[in-house]
Each structure stands twice: as C-alpha cells, then as structure tokens.
Give the backbone structure.
Amino acid sequence: MNDMDKIKNRIKNLATEYLRDIISVRRHLHKFPELSFEEHNTSEFISAYLSELVIPHKRGIAKTGIVGLIEGRSGKGKVVALRADMDALPVREQNEVEYKSAHDGIMHACGHDVHMAGLMGAARILNEMKDDFGGIVKLIFQPSEETYPGGAKVMIEEGVLENPKPDVIIGQHVYPDLKSGHIGMKGGNYMASTDEIYLRVTGKGGHAATPFKNIDPVLTASHILVALQQVVSRNANPGIPTVLSFGRFIADGRTNVIPDTARLDGIMRTFDEQWRSEMKQKITRMAKGIAEGMGAHCEVVIDPGYPVLHNDENLTQRVMGYARDLLGDECVHEIEARTTAEDFAYLARAIPGCFYRLGVNPPDSTTAPNLHTSTFNVDESSLHTAMSMMAWTAIHEMKLTV
Ligand code: NI
C-alpha cells in the first residue's frame, strides 16, 4: 500500500468515525437557520467548534464570516482554500423531522447546512492528520450566498484571499439529481452570470376608445417584450447558452383606460462575460429604439448580479481524478452547465477554483425534492462524502508543489 492509499484509508475511517458528530452538527445548523448576513448564531456555533479543535480562526469577516487556518507539520506545500456558505432562505419548512427549523419562515432549503457541516468535518479530519501533510488549509465560512452582492465579494474586499494567498479554492454544493455517495462536476464555464432587468415604458394615457389621442405604453412594452426574444434567438451565439425571461409585466390601466406607463421586469443569464456586456447594450438599444419609434420612452435599468462561475479546467480534471480514486469511477459524473448562479464565481475568478456537486438523494429514492422548496432534505450519509472529499482534495493539492 503506498502512502496516498494509507492517507485515503485514514480519511475514510476518520469520516466514518466523525459521521455521527457531523450529522448532529448539520441538524443543529438546520434547526437554527439564519438569513443572509444575519448568520450570528451560526457563526458563533462554528467558532465554538473550531475553538474546541484548537483551530486558529478569525471571525467578523464580512460581518459573520469566519476564516480558519490548519497548518501542516511536515515540510512545504501549497495553500488550499475550502469554502462553505452559511445562509438560509425565507422559506417555511414543511418537513416533519425532529430537527425541523425552529425559526418560522426561515429554512436551510439550499443545503448550506450540509456545506458547513461538511467543511467542519473536513476541518476535523485535516486537523487530526496535520502530521501527514505540508502546506496550509484555509477554511472559509462565507455568509450570504443567496442575496446580492453576496458574501464572497465582501470577503475578498476584506482580504480573505491574502495572508496567506490560496493557490486554489474548492467549494461544494448539494445536488438532489445525484444519489448520496456520488459527485458531479464540469470544467470551464459551469454556472451562469445573472443580471436583473427593469424596463419602464412611458407613453401617454387616456381613454381606450380614443387611442389616436394616446401613446400606448402597453402595446409598446408588448413589442419590446417580443422583440427582445430575438436577442437570444438571433444575436446570441448558439454555443453560449443564454436566457432572457420577464416574469413581471405591469400595465395598471382598466378595460377602457390606457395607463401612462408599463413595467417589464426580468432576468438575463449567460455564460460568457463579453457576450454578457454586449447583450446588455443590445437590450438597452432595442428597448429604447422601439419605444422611440412608437413615440414613447423607455427607461432601462440593468442591475448586475453574480458573474459566470468558471471552474479552472486543470484543477477540475485533477479533482475529478481524486474523486474517482476516493469514490470509484461509477460515482463520479460529468454534469452539464447550469443557468443558476453562485457567488463562488467571484472567488474562482480571483484564483483557480473548482465548484463541484455533492449527491444527496437517498439511494432508494426516485424523486428528490428540489432546492429552494419547503420539503427539501438530504440523505445524511452524503456528509461522509462531503467531508472526506474536501479533506482528500486538500491533501492532494497541497502536495502538488512539494
Ligand atoms: Ni445554495
């Protein structure tokens, strides 16, 4: 048995030994969820756990964020950052479990409880195995993934990627489409950029029976709504997935009253930063031009959201290799790009990053409740994979420069 095989077995055994503890950690976090940038008790709880393990850490980064360091004892090595997000969602939990959310109307419906518990388990394993590696593990507990501007950006501004600067960063996210024990990932552009679009069309209201006396903002906005679909079908490169959706169209007139204004609110998502900025210009020009042509006026506001999440190709290939070795080939999957967004994107833009998906669906289940629903839950044996995969990846990556 070579050294890495010994390390692998040690990690697996420790994960098995700690699983019960990490499940209770996850249940505690699940029971007491907190919203974005309000993760005070969550932060307190994580800090107490790290203190008990005598892992040095700093609190109060981006309000409730925590950064911990585990230094290896043997020789030199890279700095590897491991990140977990901390916030819950404004969802009322409907699961009847003993650890059901005690905070009415707030729920860990996106699995961030699993991410935190998984990282705490990985920290416990790595701390126990300090003699087996050189290098430094940087633990990043990040607040507010769900709400723009997101905690990642704020943490970067507050220096989370300095002193020491990580060589790579790894993140994981629960994934109901895969069974527990499985993971999936994709190199390159993996998750979408997101922007919010607010169009306000101003015309001239009046009696609906005398349209020639009005400038109809409802019809103008309708033309804009239909025309903008061509940005996706005619302007977007078919190789770059692009979404443009308007979920809100408000024209508050009456059957016989044309209103003065109409509003269209929507989102755009895509996978290429250059196209993203071109798309914003096209939307603005088209909406204004159509309104102008119809004698109306269109005000365009586009609020920027998270950038494209780019998984470093080389790093992702390596992580895939570690995963195959740890979990077996049949448990590691190449997955498709997703049109959801994630603020890990900021971290992965600053340094090479890999954000992979952790299967959480029970082995005997055929249907999995979706993320962000009131019945979302996980098979807790996935925490074994969550902590062992993080620890195993960190040890491999730290060794690379030795
Ligand atoms: Ni999430």
Remarks:
- The longest strand covers residues 168-179.
- The chain has two domains: 3-191+308-399, 193-304.
- Residues 127 and 187 are 29 Å apart (CA to CA).
